[in-house]
Please model this.
Amino acid sequence: MSKVLLLHGPNLNLLGAREPEIYGRDTLADIDAKCQARAEALGLALESFQSNSEGALLDRLHAAAKDGVQLVIINPGAFTHTSVALRDALLGTALPFIEVHLSNVHAREPFRRHSYLSDVALGVITGFGVQSYLMAVDAAAARLAPTHDR
Ligand code: CA2
Model:
């Protein structure tokens, strides 16, 4: 079974409580459960992890690479726009990854238009709420299938 890691960055543990007009009403636990169900249906083993700490996210990526994780789905939260360290960890571990965002980062403040990760991601899904994550799980399954269409 292919192993996929779902990583959530800072403040995403607050989902469901505030700013539902931007981020929707699902809690992080709801999102994890929906992704887990989709992954299971597609034959993927999915683990998820959230941290508000950049170092903890880097350590989880390093562990994932050693642990045979084949693909990462990541919502880096605000670290998207700030973190060279996260970019270096993703490149350094050589883990292929899909960047996801709940909101459309291109339709918000100008500083959200720049990502330190997008140019080295397999792809970016932004603006579809919880569907962004589910589309990423579908894309991961397609990518990890023995013969995938490019
Ligand atoms: O749209 C996304 O998924 C973001 O990655 C969310 C980040 C933001 O910094 C990115 O630009 C886009 C923020 C996550 C904060 O989540 C909250 C949830 C509820 C209440 C407050 C913040």
